[in-house]
Amino acid sequence: MTGVGENPDIGTLVSQFIASGDDKEVSKEYVKKATGLVENNDLTLLEFIRGLGPTITSESDMTRAAGMQFLAETLSGLSSTRLSKQDVNVFFEFLLSKLDDKSCLIHTFHGILSLIKSKNFIFGMNGNIQSILSYLLDKYNPRSHLAKVRYFPFNILKELAEKNITYFSTASDILELFIKTFIHIASGEKDPRNLMISFNLNVAINQNLPLTTLGPESDALIRDMYDVCFCYFPISFTPPANDPYKISAEDLKLALREAISCQSGYAKDSFNDLLEKLTSTNPVVRNDVLKTMLLSVERYNDDTILEYWETIWNGLKYEILHNDVSLFKSSHETIIPDNYDSAIDDTDEFKPMMFTLSILGVLSGRLEKTHNLDNIIVMITQELEENLSKVDHKHFKQSILLLSVIASNSQSAFNQIISFLFSPKLLGKYIRSDITIDNNASENEIDVAEAYDLNTAKKRDLIDNLGFLFISYKTLTKGLDSSSDFLFSNNLVMYKDHLLLFLCQSLQTASNMERTLKCKVIQQFLSLTLLPKYLNKEENTLFLNQVNDVLFSVVAHNENWNDDIVVKEIVTSLQKFMTNDVNLMGNVTMVVELLLPGLLDLLTPDSQLISSPKYMANFKKTLTLINDLCVNYQFLEVLSIRILNKLGLYSELSSSTFDLFQDSVALLVNCIKKVESSKQFLLNSWYKSFVPRFLNVSIGVSDADQSHLCGEVVGDLLSWIIRFSEKDKHQNILKDFVDLFSGKSADGVSVNYSLLDKASPLISIFNKTFASIDRSCDFNVCINVSPEVYIDSITKICYACDDEYSRIGYLQHLSLYINKFIPASFDVGTYMEKIFKRSETLFSPSATVSKNDVVNFEILIWSIKGLLVKLDKTGLQYFENVTVSIGNWQKTMRHLIPKAFKIFFVDLPIFKNEPLSSKQKVISGVQNLNVRLLYKQKIFEIVVPKLIDYYLTADEEMKETCLVSLSMILECIPNAILKSHLPDILPLILSSLSSHNPVILNGALTTTELILKEAPKLAVPHLSTLTSNLTNLAINKIVVRKTLVNTADIRFQALKCLQCLFDSVDQQHTIAYRTDVLKKLARGLEDPKRNVRKLSCDIRQSLYEMNN
Amino acid sequence: MSDPINANPVVLDVSQLPTRSKKDQTEADFVDQNLVRNVLSLSFLERKHYEEEESAGDSGSDSDMQISGDESVCVDYFEEEEEEIDAQEIFDLISSISDPEHPLTLAQLAVVNLNDIEVKNDTRSKNSIAEVLIKITPTITHCSLATLIGLGIRVRLERCLPPRYRINIRIKENTHQSENQINKQLNDKERVAAACENDQLLGVISQMLSTCK
């Protein structure tokens, strides 16, 4: 080989190139070298040709071909400016002369292509274009060459077209030559790569060249060009496995579609040809045909569309008229779904109907521009008139659909179609009140009556179908300016009063049984209210009044009105009514003024009725309905004040109304949560306007409520309000609540006593409010005592308090205080050491435990919890101190330790925000929690391995404590954390299944189910134990010390595990247990609980099927 | 009334079928009733773990334990409330069986109806014989598949009901031309047993039962 830097002899390079043969990598190197030499002028072109001379004139075909290849590849490697005009010309002439040499044709083409790409290629110089095109047209026969040879002529034409297509429009002879050449090389092509170029060239020619200048010749040429593309339709292609060109069937389809739709002159044949292909039964083909038609209707020029509309209409109308159109629903937003092309697969047999309607819609839009649409509509309507004369005509809906689609693209068509449909002969006779039955008509009287009078089913269909016209109106007016004339004077506006009257009458005269009719009327009435500028305020009021009447008549007549489909329809309608962009504020106000009072009346407490279960049931149903209607802030705002008034009434009544109170407050909580989840808003104003009055009525109730549920929901509501109040306001809010807490009155509200003096269940309310306060706020400024004194006063109450609920409240308060309000100066280490020492007695073997000891321990655990959630070092240290000593646990600790674990792991409202559905930041900027996300995972990974180790060495009694502890932890751990530890826990779980402690069983079964779902392979070695333990739990009655161990829940869970086992473990392992389990489960069929019996049935059924 | 002829059967929507009445279920609560119980479960003082040493041995002690599979062992423990097998439960079991020729369920075709199911059960003892009587309504009076449907229902119920239940399947009066013949066939033990040994027939029945919910 020649060394770098030396000037190699070109002849040597050529010889080496020839010698390298098929090794493309190596041969490329030589070409590269030659290119480099020429590019850098190290070798003149003359020297280059001279060196190449002997090879390209060689007697041997192979050598010649190789020489030409070397030349062509070198040329293609040169930069586009390297060759001068003269050089290009010389090479071009030379290559033209070589075209007759068949053995190196492909390389000659390649060389020519490279020259055309060169910047100095001059179109028309020395007749170059003429020469190459003439050669291709007259002497080149595509059929006698391979696809890779044919590829170059396509590329030469493509390159010519891309580089300077206007050149061909300069003279008609060259234009004709170009087109003829194209037709010649494209005829009979089959290779996908070449076809892509062929279709693209077809488009380029038709879009850029003035074919009409060719005079009479042009028709024949257009026809031929049409033939070289349409003959492939519908194109189907499966790329080979090692597809080198990455051309997909879809690419080909799209390119072909573009080609067919690029020339209006194709219309002569294309529509008829396409419609003929539409007779195919294959939905993929049909969809392809219709997509191509759609594109053609969009692209062909106006005159063509006008000329062929009838062909299209006649060809397509039956696609709709003779089909099942039930999938088009007038309750939808649009007639044709917006994204139908991408959302529905081409194999879907209903998709052609969507395309058909799209085409007709586009067609009417195009025709409007030709100013001939009016006449055309007359023809179409005449054709459909028969179908529309009776509501129950089998093509009624189809015809309405067709007209609605045509109307939705043109204002004049819309007007024309509406006045046609509302004529007395057609729908007018039902809808218009200005038309009376003409009794003197010559027709048979019964027919007349029947024709004018609609039965329920017909009325329902009619109203349903009117919906399509409304959709049409909506589509038509979508982009219109709100002052547009059309909105105020169109034919649908003209018939507005008739429509309203008809709908109202239909609603009023429908009997209570005719629910679907009522639903349809409400649906379409709603549609009218949502049409832009269609109904005025009074008419909207009319709608609401009608809905109101229907709603309350259902409430009065149907005990289960909440399940009534009419009520459900009303709810969805009102939701849309209040959230639609059309007049949103006005609509909400209207609902609040017209509908809400009636609903609130249902909530009015009546001392006579309150105790009846029916009243309570109705009360809850009403709340659910109001909850459903609360879709935005505007509604919620009013609702809060109205409900607050009711709360005042409830709080004055006896304790039996606590339920009403708590449900109503819970309603507000739900509504806030729902509205904040969909669109966040600030509740600043609520703190001033709502909270003081609310506290006034709720403190007394919460204090008196023995179930404590009122306090819980009151706390929830306050915490939402605080969390959504601006961060700046939080210090003041905190001050207010601390004052209230310590017995001072704030804003006219007071608790009468300090919660630090007397244990009170109200502590839970304050815990929730303090938990929602931003963590940057200073608590200690508000209390005026040192943290030590404050903690002391809380712990004192914990010792003294007899009420469990309140005591835990104070413990939580302690935990929360330590978590986020202790000042930086507070020495956590000393404090923890002190309280840990107090509990140390519990760890000594001979301890007797007093109540104080237990409370000491509780204080320790809750303090640790407060630190642990923020993964504080001291907290983690004491957490380990408590758990590390597992080996030292004494009998007395058996009941305390598992509960401690529960407290460590459980999610508490004070350390967790209720999630909004969207993962946005809270709008108020409040960061109320001082909790690390992964704290559970961290402490889980510390403690669980220790528990497992200890279990293996512990005695029987402590083993049980381990299992109970584990169950407590498992209860509170999300599956995601648990998954990676399943293999470690498995042995403990297996032994837990034979336990007789319901707590253990509960945890074990939940985890077993998780194991079986997530890692069924782990279970395979233990199938025998698992099946026998699980069936034992499921079918036997296990009674220990006169209490039932396997309660219905445990039996159900055991069965669920069994079901999972047979579902997810490989059948080859489980088949052995089939017969046994099948037999044993027969006893489960007699279980006292229905859900257990049902699950037994289901498992047995799947076991029966197992063999098949 | 003339014979009902359902050559073009009326198909009921699934939502129209009878379901266990809502009254049996508790109303959805606005407030989670477990809120307070959850709080209380965190208390260490919940059980008297302190001061008094627990007297008896621990809960695991075997002498106190009884596992029983049948009723003769009478123990005094918290008795669970019994939910009886009733007509609705039977209906739920068989309503979702597929019709052998339509792609619909028996309930959608109104072949089985809640009113035509009768359960006779002596609630006092779980050892006595109980009986289920089901009358099926063929979609047409000459329905040749009535026996197959009956057999499907029988197989389903035999798999799903405790063995003490006797299953009696009949054609509803005046709904089939060969009512008596079919009734005999459906309740003849020997013939049912023979049919169940026919693999092909069992295959068809499996197909019918595969939609059971």
From TrEMBL, chain A:
SUPFAM superfamilies: ARM repeat
Major subcellular site: nucleus
Annotated MMS19 C-terminal domain residues: 622-1061
One term under GO cellular component: cytosolic [4Fe-4S] assembly targeting complex
Places the protein is found: Nucleus
Example GO biological process: iron-sulfur cluster assembly
Residue ranges constituting the MMS19 N-terminal domain according to the UniProt record: 50-322
Keyword match Amino-acid biosynthesis: no
Function (record text): Key component of the cytosolic iron-sulfur protein assembly (CIA) complex, a multiprotein complex that mediates the incorporation of iron-sulfur cluster into apoproteins specifically involved in DNA metabolism and genomic integrity. In the CIA complex, MMS19 acts as an adapter between early-acting CIA components and a subset of cellular target iron-sulfur proteins.
Protein's name according to its UniProt entry: MMS19 nucleotide excision repair protein
Gene from which the chain derives: Piso0_001436
From TrEMBL, chain B:
Record GO biological process: protein maturation
Identification of the protein by name: Piso0_005267 protein
Native source organism of the sequence: Pichia sorbitophila (strain ATCC MYA-4447 / BCRC 22081 / CBS 7064 / NBRC 10061 / NRRL Y-12695)
Classification via Gene3D superfamilies: 6.10.250.1280, Fe-S cluster assembly (FSCA)
Matches recorded under PANTHER family: CYTOSOLIC IRON-SULFUR ASSEMBLY COMPONENT 2B, CYTOSOLIC IRON-SULFUR ASSEMBLY COMPONENT 2B-RELATED
Family: Belongs to the MIP18 family.
InterPro entries: FSCA_dom_sf, MIP18
Coiled coil segments of this chain: none
